[in-house]
From TrEMBL:
This is GntR family transcriptional regulator. Residues 2-69 form the HTH gntR-type domain. CDD domains: WHTH_GntR (cd07377). SUPFAM superfamilies: GntR ligand-binding domain-like, Winged helix' DNA-binding domain. Keywords: DNA-binding, Transcription, Transcription regulation. Gene3D superfamilies: GntR ligand-binding domain-like, Winged helix-like DNA-binding domain superfamily/Winged helix DNA-binding domain. The lineage of its organism: Bacteria, Bacillati, Actinomycetota, Actinomycetes, Kitasatosporales. It comes from Streptomyces toxytricini.
Length: 221
């Protein structure tokens, strides 16, 4: 059975994000085909997709390699995400379904329980699920695709620390959900923007960068 290129793409991306393939590592079609038990055709297609996403780069005489993002690129990634997530929340307020609201409310309820209990590892997964659902509720395929790609790249470039005040963090998630439920797009946008600014300090760069450090703190994160 032929394994589709998108499945191979997901597997390679996951290995890049997890650190199995380090920045700068060479990626040959033969090596990857053996690793995933596929032919070179879906590997070739997957590498083209990953290059368009910024995970892979092509080098003369070396072929495909894992990209080596600069600190400036990493900082830009967070800044773009902080612009797009409020837009997704505003659209979610106009376009969400009852199914989306049910999931968001359930996540908020569970997140608040875990926050009060000090279960930090659960909170990180729940927070990611919350923001993914909020993006899905925007019903904007292009925006969802961008945020999904950014989520993968943020997971690759950054280690995310648990929030210092998890109860307050999940109270903010609850307020965002309430605004979305009421259809208040501007409040959902403002609350999400404020939440993103307050949680920006939890991100710590973890990938090896290809250029000297820049002053990330001077950017409006």
């Amino acid at each position: 059975m032929r394994i589709p290129a998108h499945a191979v793409c997901t597997a390679i991306r996951d290995d890049i994000v997890s650190g199995a393939f380090e920045p700068g590592a060479r990626l040959t079609e033969e090596q990857l085909a053996r690793r995933y038990g596929v032919s070179r055709v879906p590997v070739r297609e997957a590498l083209r997709t990953l290059e368009s996403e910024g995970f892979v780069t092509s080098r003369r005489h070396a072929g495909a390699c894992v990209a080596e993002p600069t600190e400036q690129e990493a900082a830009d990634l967070l800044e773009m995400r902080m612009l797009l997530e409020p837009l997704a929340a505003a659209r979610a307020a106009r376009r969400r379904t009852e199914g989306h609201l049910k999931v968001l409310r359930g996540l908020v309820r569970l997140g608040q329980e875990r926050a009060r209990g000090g279960q930090g590892e659960d909170l990180r997964a729940l927070g990611s699920w919350f923001h993914e659902t909020l993006a899905q509720a925007s019903a904007s395929p292009g925006l969802i695709a961008l945020l999904t790609q950014m989520r993968h790249k943020v997971a690759w470039m950054y280690a995310v620390q648990a929030p210092e005040r998890p109860v307050e963090c999940w109270a903010e998630h609850g307020a965002i959900t309430d605004a979305v439920a009421r259809g208040d797009a501007e409040r959902a946008r403002a609350l999400t923007a404020g939440h993103a600014e307050r949680t920006a300090g939890a991100y710590r760069l973890r990938v090896r960068t290809s250029q000297p450090a820049v002053h990330i703190a001077s950017r409006s994160l």
